[in-house]
Amino acid sequence: MAELKNDRYLRALLKEPVDVTPVWMMRQAGRYLPEYRATRAQAGDFMALCRNAELACEVTLQPLRRYDLDAAILFSDILTVPDAMGLGLYFEAGEGPRFERPTDTIDAIKKLSIPDPEDDLGYVMRAVSTIRRELNGQVPLIGFSGSPWTLATYMVEGGSSKAFEKIKRMMYAEPAALHMLLDKLADSVVLYLNAQVANGAQSLMIFDSWGGALSHAAYREFSLRYMQKIVDGLTRFADGRKVPVTLFTKGGGLWLEAMAETGCDALGLDWTVDIADARRRVGHKVALQGNMDPSVLYAQPERIAQEVETILAGYGEGSGHVFNLGHGIHQFADPEHAGEFVKSVHELSAKYHK
Ligand code: 1CP
């Protein structure tokens, strides 16, 4: 395998010295880029794009051609795992993801099997190895998965949800059923992420996009507990280097201490969190990733730079910060502004790394 030419992202996650703060963007390959829309049209639809290793590799690399990003993220989706468990994922135009066979009863949950990542999710593994090869050591490759709780919301609701009616009913009325589902998901995710590492992923991120919908106590019981099980089961070394693990609970700002206790390497922060406060609370234990509001990209470059500076100053001096947006880049973000954002992070952060 080619030596890494730029390893600032991996170094920052382990709090090793860096020259400037590394940066990447959640959903950096996506609909805001015209070249992404063209490749998706060529593939036919979103899942066809995910299933084609060459095209998935192409869209992964597109943002790296435009911007001086410090990491690449596998182009895929968190919902590939429930799809491989037999739920039948499809995308309704304009409506987001849907499942043909939701798992909203204990009988359906009992029947679920744990996917073999090299077989049932072999197309993801082929994308990982293709991207790693084509990156040729330019920057590290991030592998990812959804958290068990976040995956379960889609599986029980049958698609995206705002109120989480069905899964919350199950959580309080039939907790054993939900625990069985979450446990199967945690086992599936461990196998899936370890297979991504075996195929070339150099860092891992777990997206708990809907953990913030839980109560204080329920977060620990239904989300964190299963992310803990995953962290405990992951391969943490590959190619003679540590494989850092980042946990991101959107809306999880109140629970950073508990998340940092899991033994992960870094926490992703959404924009509701004051990064200076987060560093005081958990910065001795973990690195921090984040956390600019993606809507700032609607502003002019000067305003974007100002916001970047505020976040850099909030984190302060030294390593342990990976700059990112607090959630995915918006579909209608201006690609030029995304470029200004990445440039500002590198230019404005050098003074914090002397
Ligand atoms: O129409 C399209 O082209 C599809 C839009 C799209 C894209 C670009 C979807 C459908 N998924 C993706 C790619 C994707 N999804 C990536 C890889 C690329 C990158 O970051 O550059 C990643 C990491 C994800 C992860 C993902 N999918 C999450 C977790 C992160 C987050 O945004 O909170 C979630 C919740 C999903 C579900 C999903 N997939 C797609 C959509 C539109 C959604 C969200 C639906 C909802 O709001 O419930």
Explain what this protein looks like in three dimensions.
Strand 10, helix 14 (301-315) and strand 11 form a beta-alpha-beta unit. It is globular, with a radius of gyration of 19 Å. The protein contains 15 helices and 11 strands. The protein has 354 residues and is an alpha/beta fold. A 7-stranded parallel sheet has the order 1-4-5-8-9-10-11. It has helices spanning 8-13, 34-43, 46-51, 53-66, 80-87, 106-111, 122-135, 148-157, 165-173, 175-198, 216-233, 256-260, 275-282, 301-315, 335-349, and strands at 72-73, 89-92, 96-99, 141-146, 203-208, 237-238, 241-242, 245-249, 266-268, 287-292, 321-325. It has a single domain (8-353), classed as TIM Barrel (Alpha-Beta Barrel). The mean pLDDT is 97. Helix 2 packs antiparallel against helix 4 (53-66). Bound molecules: coproporphyrinogen I. Coproporphyrinogen I binds at residues 26-31, 40, 46, 73, 75, 77-79, 96-97, 144, 160, 207, 209, 328. Residues 26-31, 40, 46, 73, 75, 77-79, 96-97, 144, 160, 207, 209, 328 line the site of coproporphyrinogen I.
